Amino acid sequence: MRVCSIIGYKGESLAAPLLVTCLQKMEYRGYDSVGIGTINEGKVSVKKGVGRVEDVDSKLLLKVLPGRIGIGHTRWATHGKVTEENAHPHTSCNGEIAVVHNGIIQNYSELKSMLIRKGHIFKSETDSEVIAHLLEEDYVHSGDLRGAVLNTAKKLNGAFSFIAAFSDGTIAGARFDEPLIVGISNDGYYVSSDVVGFLNYTDRAIFLDNRDVVILKGSEMEMISFDGAPVMRPITQVAWEFGGTVLRARGAAIRAAVPHLRPGPPSCRLLHLPCRARRLPRGTRCWPRGSWRRPRRREKAGTHNGGPA
Are 87 and 128 within 8 A, CB to CB? Predict the structure, then answer.
């Protein structure tokens, strides 16, 4: 279960504070690094760093980035080490496109080699960065933003969803075998990997189907397939209680997949994720404050963190 959280916003409110709050809601999906990018007066600004959302925000002041359009990401590393360079968003060479991505691009090595031959310079070790350069390559030559998004999505092999922010204020998202959801509020639109991300702000959601693309340009929203044909998806009203239910269900699924873990208090429950990812040996236990210890002796079944299960 290696997943990342992605979020985009375009509306009347300042984007950065909203994005930080949304990412905190989805931090269970990944938290080794975090970053946001905003669009203001035709300029793309990005801040990102290693650590959890709260820590990176305290250090870099993510919330002060200007603009009412932006994207954000929390990472669970798959390609590349946990570094600031590998954190999202990733930008194009000209700095006019920023991208956040969830999933794995299986053919990224071939795409990266092709782009390097065309003069593109990569700054990270990730598979995700190829999306920003593919978009730039197509958009610069054609001038067709819509076409660039479609062509890029069709070139990617693997399971992915991504959100791209362009310097003209357009936000575009695409999905294939990874979730992507549009939230519709009174003051704007959200695009997210999880409804939990924006549920504090709106309960109206559009669950995009596989091979769907959404483009937010101006005040309009367009939904099309990878083939460019218009698509219609229903608006679903999500119960406000759904957010808590999702987190509880995900916690139960994680514990079922990792049987040597016992249900702990809420303060440490979300720390179960890295235990599975790091493949720690059976008997390793989750302790408060993120420390990892192997018990010195066999303990009674049904105990966790020194207390009853």
Answer: no
